TrEMBL record:
<keyword id="KW-0288">FMN</keyword>
<feature type="domain" description="Luciferase-like">
    <location>
        <begin position="31"/>
        <end position="392"/>
    </location>
</feature>
<feature type="binding site">
    <location>
        <position position="222"/>
    </location>
    <ligand>
        <name>FMN</name>
    </ligand>
</feature>
<dbReference type="Pfam" id="PF00296">
    <property type="entry name" value="Bac_luciferase"/>
</dbReference>
<keyword id="KW-0285">Flavoprotein</keyword>
<feature type="binding site">
    <location>
        <position position="151"/>
    </location>
    <ligand>
        <name>FMN</name>
    </ligand>
</feature>
<dbReference type="InterPro" id="IPR036661">
    <property type="entry name" value="Luciferase-like_sf"/>
</dbReference>
<protein>
    <submittedName>
        <fullName>FMN-dependent oxidoreductase (Nitrilotriacetate monooxygenase family)</fullName>
    </submittedName>
</protein>
<dbReference type="InterPro" id="IPR016215">
    <property type="entry name" value="NTA_MOA"/>
</dbReference>
<dbReference type="GO" id="GO:0016705">
    <property type="term" value="F:oxidoreductase activity, acting on paired donors, with incorporation or reduction of molecular oxygen"/>
</dbReference>
<dbReference type="InterPro" id="IPR051260">
    <property type="entry name" value="Diverse_substr_monoxygenases"/>
</dbReference>
<dbReference type="GO" id="GO:0004497">
    <property type="term" value="F:monooxygenase activity"/>
</dbReference>
<dbReference type="InterPro" id="IPR011251">
    <property type="entry name" value="Luciferase-like_dom"/>
</dbReference>
<keyword id="KW-0560">Oxidoreductase</keyword>
<keyword id="KW-0503">Monooxygenase</keyword>
<comment type="similarity">
    <text>Belongs to the NtaA/SnaA/DszA monooxygenase family.</text>
</comment>
<feature type="binding site">
    <location>
        <position position="97"/>
    </location>
    <ligand>
        <name>FMN</name>
    </ligand>
</feature>
Length: 454
């Protein structure tokens, strides 16, 4: 395989039931049965994907105090699932979303280091934050972490976790020639970290892991989030699936990484994407439109807009115009437990009205038009071309792919698109690295014994 072409990073995404999932399809499987996770992971590994990505839900989502119907299926624990998948895969990275707000550094460091050892160097942590009392009421920190402190805590959490990982050097376990056993050095595992969020010290129980440190993933759209990700993450999830806005985000993050003293290639940019394949482009488009119409019902469209407007929009006609009333950001949240990705409610509402007027779209149609994140639609050859062109033009370094049909949908991509990407020389024919860092072409982390400070 030629290495002159920019290589495509691929992740497989399984995020639970939501409006992107065709849960009503007769072939749809369980969202919590281990067989679902196993089949998705094995299929991704068969397709030479870099990693399997698991999202997290710490609370059941609500609308006006009522639980979303889709959430009744529940969300299993991230570490339990990933540790189980380590036993049925050999090369695939195992990335888990775990909250930095509601977990302690020692527990996070121990669990991810253990997963890295169990998997032979394939663990990754998607660092997320939270400040809302709705999620926090499940935890002792409920409601009293100021929103302005969420990245302060996240950065200190990550620094403390790295201090724990670095408390063991690669040479701390030495072989005793007489006994044949490995013995630890006297100072192995010693750590101390002090900051506004933590004052901890002791001895860490897990030796340095195969990757040195698990891979760090993060998603940040706000200026503060971008700076945090550019300074700390190995990969960042991009919310942009179309050029040129994706290329602008790509340039911005890479520039921020360089400003933080890193090389531009030390951080990878990865948007999520769905796909619909057909024997012809017109067949794929027809399938996509039919699927999209089933996914975004009138009720779904109203709920998605309620998250922006923060108003009860149930009285509006989904086939009518976009609401003329302004959002109410000061009212109690009507939607609880969903990640809010729109930075300016008023600007977003104004944009949706403009798009609806310009394209003559109804409320539901404008949601369909504006809420998709660059679906990959066409023949297998067309989709392979779209992926290659997007990455080659620095829209991203790859994609995190999810299928509307769980868990069988990924098989079609692996069987029909992966061979074409391999023929183009942009996707490995086989794994060459031994760790996730190797496969992502990330530099080896440099351990540091400087473990005190915020």
């Amino acid at each position: 395989m030629s290495t002159s072409r920019k290589q495509v990073i691929l992740g497989a995404y399984l995020g639970g039931v939501n409006h992107h999932t065709a849960w009503w399809h007769p072939d749809a499987g369980s969202q919590i049965d281990f067989g679902t996770f196993e089949h998705t992971a094995r299929t991704a590994e068969r397709g030479r994907f870099d990693f399997f990505f698991l999202a997290e839900g710490l609370a059941l989502r609500e609308r006006a105090g009522e639980i979303f119907d889709q959430d009744i299926i529940g969300r299993p624990d991230t570490f339990t699932v990933l540790a189980s998948l380590a036993a049925v895969t050999d090369h695939l990275g195992l990335a888990g979303t775990v909250n930095a707000t509601f977990n302690e550094p020692y527990e996070l460091a121990r669990r991810f280091a253990s997963l890295d050892h169990l998997s032979g160097g394939r663990a990754a942590w998607n660092v997320v934050t939270s400040f809302d009392a709705f999620t926090g009421r499940n935890f002792r920190r409920g409601g009293f972490l100021d929103p302005a402190d969420r990245y302060v805590r996240a950065e200190q959490t990550l620094n403390a976790v790295r201090a724990l990982w670095d408390s063991w050097d690669d040479e701390d376990l030495v072989a005793d020639q007489e006994s044949g056993r490995f013995l630890g050095r006297p100072d192995a595992g010693a750590f101390a970290f002090r900051g506004s969020q933590f004052d901890i010290s002791g001895r860490f129980t897990v030796p340095r892991s195969p990757q040195g440190r698990p891979v760090i993933l993060q998603a940040g759209v706000s200026p503060q989030g971008r700076d945090f990700a550019a300074a700390n993450a190995d990969a960042i999830f991009s919310p942009y699936g179309t050029l040129p806005e994706a290329a602008e985000f790509y340039r911005d993050i890479k520039a921020r990484a360089v400003a933080a003293g890193r090389a531009a290639d030390d951080i990878k940019i990865l948007p999520s994407a769905s796909f619909v394949l057909g024997d012809t482009d017109s067949e794929a488009i027809e399938k996509y439109h039919a699927l999209r119409d089933e996914q975004v019902t009138g009720q779904t469209a109203l709920i998605l807009l309620e998250q922006i407007w923060n108003r009860d929009l149930s009285g509006y006609d989904p086939d009518g115009p976009v609401p003329a009333v302004d959002p109410d950001p000061d009212a109690p949240p009507i939607i609880q437990g969903r990640a809010f990705v729109h930075q300016d409610r008023f600007a977003t509402a104004a944009r949706l009205r403009e798009v609806a007027e310009a394209k003559k779209l109804s409320l539901r149609e404008v949601v369909i038009d504006q809420f998709e994140r660059g679906p990959l639609v066409g023949t297998p050859a067309r989709v392979a071309e779209l992926i290659d062109d997007f990455v080659r033009n620095d829209g991203s370094d790859g994609f995190i792919l999810g299928s509307h049909l769980v868990p069988w949908g990924l098989d079609e991509f692996v069987d029909r698109v992966v061979p074409l990407l391999q023929d183009r020389g942009v996707l490995r024919a086989d794994y060459t690295g031994t760790t996730l860092r190797d496969n992502l072409a990330l530099p080896a982390p440099q351990p540091s014994r400087a473990v005190t400070g915020a």
